[in-house]
């Protein structure tokens, strides 16, 4: 999307930024506290240029120019006192929060009084294409993340002079300021900080994101004193877990040795593990391990892992072991993100949380925490940081932890569920596309009730055939009764939760029946207003053997599955809004399979209807072999009409559905692809 340069502020969602004003970017001098890439941005340093060149160039600049970092961020003009975005949201500018190498940060308050931080970057700094691309990448990456220990991305917009990245406010500054005030921190406090940082990095790495600029100054405290990683300016996404990056970037004190190797070695996720080691050392000892006045000395020390544990600042043996492993020269020798928390050091005193008193002095009682209490606090800190402990064996407990924690994008990474609006349509891994419900499960419950067969209504080719021929008949004045059938609203999926990465796909129908399509293809369908539930086991694509049972006296093998169904039901009821109003159950209908693309999710129901939930929140349902079509608007208004009439009119009769005919063409192609 191309963004025009005009007031009011515009949302920044596309791949382009406006042209900046005609201010010439200035060249930067070399500073140890600024990311290396800062110089690459402004001095046309190309990724992959060799290290000697980089050093030479930087040294030269260091000597030549003594400009401060403020010079760049100073180009960012103070935003007007009220900014109105294109979406019609007014933000009132508040106090100046701080500045980094490129950005200045201001408070912004919305009409409800909620306060945010607006990271403000001067357009004068993003004149060339490469810099623009980098800023857009930062926005794209940050926008895609949602984790309790990552600064939440709220919005992004621009005016003529600045680009604004609206973020969750972290009013208690960063670990860097904390360390400046406190000089050194206690081991228990650092344990808690490390768990939060590791939780966030584990999440980033699971999404193939490398942060590449982890440092104390980029880890902020939120109002509740929880840590949040911010500043994704140097972050990158690997195309595959095996690929490597070659750009020399990072901040001198935190840079990993393999980054200094540049083109020869390349680097990957392990640079973030290295940075964890640097931060842990700095917090416990009071300064980074390779610190020196001259950046070149820092690099030399890094390359030979030349650091000491000073005797006047003693730290525990177990902390030294962990730091030494984290700072291994060979990246493959560093502990994996999953194994860091297994180190003995984490078994020490562990506080339950950090209070604001920690900002000014050592909190009382941090070293007097019992082993039992520490173990409990450690487990709970891991849970809060999205790290699941293998002890939680009970599936319902796992579901509870996953679904109730405030991180839907972690747990439901591909969710398109009606209540989850922000993470929709982001990415669909190939493994989830074209799911077909083949059963591997062979057990049957001891049923007191009937066992029967439910046949699959085969309608794929009839539907495609009818949709195609109705297109040509749409303007025919002599439509037949067959083409104008009676139009009842079909059975729709009104809520759903994709949990196929662990158990399966759960949904609620508009007759309030609840189903879970387990990953092995079996469905459990709990019938609304009834004591019955059905276990439906697929039979060679022809249908399902159906075993009925009682909810109040389920066979013992079914109890666990019913618990999962109940948990999903509870979750959907309290978290998701319905797609449409209720309908009476006419027949037993359930989900046969589903297909997800970046534009829609398609549900194939067992009675031969197809439901399409499009990205723009319009839903279509094709029933009666394509002769009838239903539309559900984003506001839940439902209408059902003969397909031929809406083809004739080019749209539904009582609603103007955006790109209606294109949507029908997509539907036809999607169903055809299933034949
Ligand atoms: N979410 C936030 N809440 C409060 N203040 C923030 C927030 N994000 C950033 N800041 C403040 O703004 C300053 C600059 O932000 P940030 O570090 O993201 O900018 P930068 O120019 O990219 O920095 P760097 O030079 O480290 O790359 C921070 O040092 C901090 O003082």
UniProtKB/TrEMBL annotation:
A Gene Ontology BP annotation from the UniProt entry: filamentous growth
Q: Which domain of life is it from?
A: Eukaryota
- Domain Protein kinase stretches: 91-346
Presence of keyword Signal: no
Q: Which UniProt keywords apply?
A: ATP-binding, Kinase, Nucleotide-binding, Repeat, Serine/threonine-protein kinase, Transferase
What is the uppermost EC class here? transferase
Question: Which CDD domains does the UniProt record give?
Answer: POLO_box_1 (cd13118), POLO_box_2 (cd13117), STKc_PLK (cd14099)
- One short Pfam family name for this protein? POLO_box
Annotated SMART domains = S_TKc
Query: What's one GO-annotated cellular component?
Result: spindle pole
Q: Where does ATP bind?
A: 123
State the similarity comment.
Answer: Belongs to the protein kinase superfamily. Ser/Thr protein kinase family. CDC5/Polo subfamily.
What is the name attached to this protein's record? Answer: Serine/threonine-protein kinase
Q: In which organism is this protein found?
A: Australozyma saopauloensis
Organism classification = Eukaryota, Fungi, Dikarya, Ascomycota, Saccharomycotina
């Amino acid at each position: 999307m191309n963004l025009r340069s005009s007031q009011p502020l515009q949302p920044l969602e596309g791949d382009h930024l406006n042209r900046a004003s005609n201010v010439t970017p200035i060249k930067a001098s070399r500073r140890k506290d600024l990311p290396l890439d800062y110089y690459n941005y402004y001095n046309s340093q190309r990724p992959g240029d060799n290290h000697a060149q980089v050093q030479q160039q930087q040294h030269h600049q260091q000597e030549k120019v003594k400009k401060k970092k403020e010079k760049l961020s100073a180009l960012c003009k103070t935003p007007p006192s009220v900014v109105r975005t294109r979406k019609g949201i007014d933000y009132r500018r508040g106090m100046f929060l701080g500045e980094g190498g490129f950005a200045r940060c201001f408070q912004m308050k919305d009409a409800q009084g909620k306060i945010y931080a607006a990271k403000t970057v001067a357009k004068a700094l993003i004149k060339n294409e490469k810099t623009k691309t980098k800023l857009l990448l930062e926005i794209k990456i940050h926008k895609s993340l949602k984790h309790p220990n990552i600064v939440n991305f709220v919005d992004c917009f621009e005016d003529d002079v600045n680009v604004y990245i609206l973020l969750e406010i972290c009013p208690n500054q960063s670990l860097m300021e904390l360390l400046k005030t406190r000089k050194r921190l206690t081991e228990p406090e650092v344990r808690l900080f490390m768990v939060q940082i590791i939780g966030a990095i584990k999440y980033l790495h699971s999404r193939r994101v490398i942060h590449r600029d982890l440092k104390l100054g980029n880890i902020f405290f939120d109002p509740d004193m929880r840590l949040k990683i911010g500043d994704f300016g140097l972050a990158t996404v690997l195309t595959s877990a095996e690929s490597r990056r070659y750009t020399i970037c990072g901040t001198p004190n935190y840079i990993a040795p393999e980054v200094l190797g540049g083109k020869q070695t390349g680097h990957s996720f392990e640079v973030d593990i290295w940075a964890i080691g640097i931060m842990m050392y700095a917090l416990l000892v009071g300064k980074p391990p390779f610190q020196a006045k001259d950046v070149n000395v820092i690099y030399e020390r890094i390359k030979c892992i030349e650091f000491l544990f000073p005797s006047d600042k003693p730290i525990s043996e177990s902390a030294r072991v962990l730091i030494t492993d984290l700072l291994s020269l060979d990246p493959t020798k560093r502990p994996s993100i999953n194994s860091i928390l297994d180190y003995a050091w984490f078994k020490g005193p562990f506080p339950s949380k950090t209070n604001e008193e920690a900002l000014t002095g050592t909190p009382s009682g941090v070293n007097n925490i019992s082993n039992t209490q520490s173990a409990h606090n450690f487990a709970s800190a891991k849970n809060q940081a999205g790290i699941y402990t293998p002890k939680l064996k009970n599936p319902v407990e796992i579901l509870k932890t996953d679904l109730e924690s405030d991180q839907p994008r972690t747990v439901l990474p591909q969710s398109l569920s009606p209540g989850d609006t922000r993470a929709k349509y982001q990415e669909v891994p190939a493994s989830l596309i074209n799911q077909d419900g083949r059963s591997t499960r062979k057990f049957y419950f001891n049923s007191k009730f009937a066992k029967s067969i439910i046949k699959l209504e085969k309608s794929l080719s009839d539907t495609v055939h009818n949709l195609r021929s109705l297109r040509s008949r749409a303007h025919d004045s002599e439509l037949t009764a067959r083409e104008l059938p009676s139009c009842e609203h079909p059975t729709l999926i009104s809520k759903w939760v994709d949990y196929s990465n662990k158990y399966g796909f759960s949904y609620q129908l508009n007759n309030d029946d609840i189903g879970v399509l387990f990953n092995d293809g079996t469905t459990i369908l709990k019938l609304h207003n009834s004591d019955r539930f059905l276990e439906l086991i697929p039979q060679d694509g022809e249908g399902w053997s159906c075993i009925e049972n009682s909810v109040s006296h389920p066979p013992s093998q079914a109890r666990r599955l019913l618990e999962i169904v109940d948990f999903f039901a509870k979750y959907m009821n309290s978290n998701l809004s319905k797609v449409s109003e209720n309908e009476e159950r006419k027949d037993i209908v359930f989900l046969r399979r589903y297909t997800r693309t970046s534009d829609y999710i398609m549900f194939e129901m067992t009675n031969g209807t197809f439901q399409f939930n499009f990205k723009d929140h319009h839903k279509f349902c094709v029933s009666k072999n394509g002769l009838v079509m239903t539309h559900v608007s984003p506001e839940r208004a439902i209408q059902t009409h003969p397909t031929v009439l809406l083809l004739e009119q080019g749209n539904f009769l009582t609603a103007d559905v955006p790109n209606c005919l294109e949507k029908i063409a997509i539907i036809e192609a999607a169903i055809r692809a299933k034949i």
